[in-house]
Amino acid sequence: MPKLSAALQGTVNQKLNSIGPSGIRAFDQKITGTPGLAKLTLGEPGFNTPEHVKEAGIRSIRENDSHYSAQKGTPALRNAISGFLKMRHGLDYDPKTEIVATIGATEALAASLSAMLNPGDKVIIPTPAFALYVPLIVISGGIPVEVDTSQDNFVLTAKKLTETLDREGDAVKALILTYPNNPTGVEYSEKELQDLADVIANRPMFVIADEIYSELTYGVTHHSIASMIPEQTILINGLSKSHAMTGYRVGYIAAPADFIKNAAKMHAFLVTAPSNPAQAAAAEALANGLDDPKEMCVQYKKSRDYVIGCLDKLGFETVPPKGAFYIFAKIPERYTQNSVDFATDLALKGKVGVIPGSAFGPGGEGYIRISYAASVEDLHAAMTNMAAFVNADATIA
């Protein structure tokens, strides 16, 4: 096995070298393999990709659709994205100049931040937040500004945004807004978004709206901030969560043409183009599978209500999520450990796998993230094990 030359030790990108691995993945790997573990760790939909979507991908292969697609994505997919955004949110994006199909929402974020940031630019991140944002900002030369929202029911208020902008000054280039949120499941109301939009509209800044969970809401309507300030919004979305297509890796960016020009250039440098069968499947999902997420949401809501009911009995405080498929549960005060130690004990001794809240930045300590996108059997096993772990008198049905 080759060993790196001593002369090359430490010569890698120092920004990347300074960043640790994802706290989510690292903890999941740490506890994976624990005998009898009921895992509620990763954000993986507990459904198979719909049959008509799979068939579209298979058809692409059978028809020898094996050559490079347009770098921005196939016309069929970009047209489907444009039509979806128009029908769902009343948004008008030209499929030729204002949309790029990417390798999942992850690459959409990476391409957008790389195209946007210059050294020293600041990006505001309301936390708790998905752990990917900080590393991507740092690698792109930016400075992450994490804003703790735990005292405001995990919502970034217009007041706190204004205070942050006043404090951080003109170096602020963007705000990353995720809703429904990972890890909290919190969804922003139309008024909350409009209040934020009013603040952003008066500043020379972008808002990166990560709406990957937009199709998974419970009893509320998802509103996009792009409908309020389209000229400043970089809209990120994809098919991974809505259609259980995590392995297909299809996402997209929708934004003003002037921004897309550079984002598409960065995207082309990174990946050239998404795979054709995956794009064919995604186009089918957006054009003919708009009801697919509704069927999934019915089960997700049942699972959410079941897990919250169990957690209430066991003394865990929760903010009932209105979207996505996570519960961010506060660790009972009788436990004095930090969230990593608690989650480790819960896995090794209680046989329940969750993610410690500290993996999601300021405001996450003292919490655990539970994914309820699992089978009914796994959820029941996890809640039964958790009840035994906390020595509760509650009966988990």
UniProtKB/TrEMBL annotation:
Task: Please give the SUPFAM superfamilies that the UniProt record associates with this protein.
Answer: PLP-dependent transferases
User: Mind listing the GO biological process terms from this record?
Assistant: amino acid metabolic process
Q: Work out whether the entry's keyword set contains Transferase.
A: yes
Q: Which Gene3D superfamilies match?
A: Aspartate Aminotransferase, domain 1 (3.90.1150.10), Type I PLP-dependent aspartate aminotransferase-like (Major domain) (3.40.640.10)
Keyword Transferase listed? The answer is yes
Pfam families (alphabetical): Aminotran_1_2 (PF00155)
Q: Give the enzyme's EC designation.
A: 2.6.1.-
In alphabetical order, the GO MF annotations are: pyridoxal phosphate binding; transaminase activity
What are the coiled-coil residue ranges? Answer: none
Enumerate the spans annotated as Aminotransferase class I/classII large domain. 39-378
Q: Which UniProt keywords apply?
A: Aminotransferase, Pyridoxal phosphate, Transferase
- Which cofactor does the UniProt annotation name? pyridoxal 5'-phosphate
PROSITE patterns linked: AA_TRANSFER_CLASS_1
Q: Tell me its family.
A: Belongs to the class-I pyridoxal-phosphate-dependent aminotransferase family.
> What is the protein name stated in its UniProt record?
Aminotransferase
Lineage runs: Bacteria, Bacillati, Bacillota, Bacilli, Lactobacillales
